[in-house]
Amino acid sequence: MDKNTVNKTNIIGAGEAGNATSVDMDKNSVYKTNSYYWDTQGNDFLGAIVLPFYGAFVSEEKCQLFGDVSGKKMLEIGCGNGQSLQYLGERKASELWAVDISEKQIDKAKQHLKERGLSANLICSPMEEECGLPVDYFDFVYSIYAIGWTTDLEGTFSRIASYLKKDGVFIFSWSHPIHKCVAAEHNRLVFKKCYFDESWYSVSLDKGKLTLSDRKLSTYVNALAKAGFIIEQMIEETDDELIQSRDDNSDFAKKAKMLPVTFVVKARKL
Ligand SMILES: C[S@@+](CC[C@H](N)C(=O)[O-])C[C@H]1O[C@@H](n2cnc3c(N)ncnc32)[C@H](O)[C@@H]1O
């Protein structure tokens, strides 16, 4: 991940990237706005976050949440350009599957994997909807910075549980909700937004617009429990060694030393 990418990662938070406008959540209009964003802008502005990274300053190489994936069936939720699938394919996963709402991202992922001699079953669909994925089938379902785009967290977790075999593992990362509340301003960190506010908003980014809501950590934990998962591990720490190795003095890196910017959950289907 280059330094530019790191600086842009997690940019949608605490008003750092333009003004947020409150919106009423309408599932179809969120699908339309967000799929249009990724069809037209991709990750040019936001920067991709792909395995081995779970976020700017958290990596699989240190956390070892997947362990040995050889012979395992993998499903990615929100695969973007397919680089995380590549990472797992090169580690000898037996099957690669993914769903993404953006036709353009699915095309990019197909091309990316083909060029590397890997094949995958890629489905263009909102993660919230029935899309023909097999049930009781996967050893791992995972998602790197995509789960939070769902319009229906409980429904999505329940679908993910259905795709997993018993004892299958679900790993996902997303922006830490505290990071979304705090902005760096004039060398200070300022609490800008109510942590409890989960209302939906639209935000303009460069040439596009995205619609989302910031959920509390307890909303994720409770939705996992309701879908029949047990949490095995949760990571909030920033990896200082990663910051040091990149010699990163950005405001974002300084913020990441003070508070969690990413959270990662490893949960198991009971
Ligand atoms: C920030 S990217 C993360 C993906 C990948 N890790 C990357 O960095 O390229 C978010 C991805 O989620 C997809 N996405 C957004 N909303 C979605 C939804 N409701 N269902 C499925 N995919 C969605 C987008 O098209 C995009 O490819």
Could you explain the architecture of this structure?
- The chain is 31% helix and 29% strand.
- It is an alpha/beta fold and 270 residues long.
- The protein has a single domain, classed as Vaccinia Virus protein VP39 (Rossmann fold, 3-Layer(aba) Sandwich), CATH 3.40.50.
- The chain has a 7-stranded mixed β-sheet, sandwiched between helices.
- A hairpin with a 2-residue loop joins β2 and β3.
- The longest helix has 14 residues, at 27-40.
- Mean pLDDT is 92; it is low at 1-11.
- S-adenosylmethionine is lined by residues 34, 38, 43, 46, 48-50, 78, 80-81, 84, 99-102, 105, 126-128, 144-146, 149-150.
- Residues 34, 38, 43, 46, 48-50, 78, 80-81, 84, 99-102, 105, 126-128, 144-146, 149-150 line the site of S-adenosylmethionine (SAM).
Low-confidence stretches: 1-11
**Beta-strand segment tally:** 14
Radius of gyration: 18 Å
If you consult CATH, what is the topology?
Answer: Rossmann fold
Number of domains: 1
Q: In the CATH classification, which architecture applies?
A: 3-Layer(aba) Sandwich
What's the total helix number? 10
State the major sheet: 7 strands, mixed
Q: N- to C-terminal separation?
A: 35 Å
Q: Based on CA inertia axes, which overall geometry fits? A: globular
Strand order of the largest sheet: 6-5-4-7-8-14-13
